[in-house]
Each structure stands twice: as C-alpha cells, then as structure tokens.
Amino acid sequence: MNKIDKIIKDNKLVIEEKEIKEYDNNNNIIHHKNSDGYEYWKEFDKNNNMIHYKNSNGSEYWYEFDKNNNIIHHKDSDGYEYWKEFDEDNNEIKTLKLSKGKYYLNGELLKGE
Asked: Which of 59, 60, 28, 58 has its CA nearest to residue 45?
C-alpha cells in the first residue's frame, strides 16, 4: 500500500504517489512515510513539544523543555549538543554548546585548564 501504484491507462503508465501519515491524539504527526521510502518518526510530550525525532537516513534528535516550553537541552546523533538557561521572563541568558569536541559558552570557545 505504501509503494507506488503502477496503473496502465490508455497504454500509458500512470504513477500515483502514496504516503502514510500517522497522528497522535493531539493531531501531531508521529510517523510519515513517502513514496520514495523516506520516513520519520516523532515523539511529543504532554505540551505538544517534540522531544524526539528520528528519520530513515539515520539522523536522530532529542529535545528537553522547561515548564515554559523553552528548549533547554538539544542533542543529535552527530554529536552536536546544547544547553540553554532562561530568566523568569523567558529571555535566553546562557547557552553552552558542544560541537566537534569543543565547548562554547555564549559563542565563546571554552579553553581547558
């Protein structure tokens, strides 16, 4: 059913692309597959924030949120990761990033001791 349906009409090959979409109870797409076989999966928290994403190419992402739905932690399958802090007005006040084995605080490279 998820394949390309090949139909011959009037001696011509007609290709109809089919895709699948699955939804959770909050109408978030939790699985999508297109006619080329590419697909992805998503997981959401109780506030409808996406907390996990994975695709058929091998990429994967994780997210963590605070009580105000700000992203406070992100990690991916390539080794990129960051943490964020917010003040009481939801302004971002600090960001720590890990990229290619190096840490950055608010954009500045942190040097080891």
From this structure: 28
Compute the radius of gyration of the chain from its Cα atoms: 21
Whole-model pTM?
0.77
109: exposed, middle or buried (Cβ count in 10 Å: 0-12, 13-18, 19+): exposed
Phi-psi region of 64 (alpha: psi -120 to 50; beta: other; left: phi over 0): beta
Domain boundaries, the chain: 1-42, 59-113
The alpha carbon of 18 is separated from its chain's Cα centroid by a whole number of angstroms, namely: 23
pLDDT at 10 over 80: no
Cα separation, 81 vs 95, in Å, equals 11
